[in-house]
Amino acid sequence: MSELVMRSDHRTEVTEAGRTVVRRDERGLVSAEWVLGIVAAAALAGVLLSIVTSGPVEESLVKVVLDMIDRLTGLLKQN
Question: Which ranges of 9-54 does DSSP label H, i.e. alpha helix?
């Protein structure tokens, strides 16, 4: 039978074979992973926003959108 000793940051477990296994408490890791993911997503969004709003890229996107609107209105006029 194993014996479990709890401590603040880790737990020590003595197995039936007499080995001592130390396991760290992982509470809070999920929250930290979420924070890192959110910060990375916000940074990526900022980079993409700065790229999309730059002069040449913005002009190209506007041209693509206007071309698509022109094609759609052309299809509607044919019907």
Answer: 29-52
| Unique residue bearing structure tokens 């980079």 | 47
Q: Which two tokens stand for residue 19?
A: 């080995």
Residue 12, domain extent: 3-78
The ranges of the chain with pLDDT < 70 are 1-16, 21-22, 25-29, 79
Q: Secondary structure of the chain: what % helix, strand, coil (to 5)?
A: 60, 20, 20
- Give the Cα separation of 8 and 24 in Å (integer): 9
CA distances from 77 to 65, 70, 71, 72, 74 (A): 18, 11, 10, 9, 5
Query: What's the structural domain count of the chain?
Result: 1
Rounded Cα distance between 47 and 44, Å, is 5
The pLDDT, as a whole number, for residue 41 is: 97
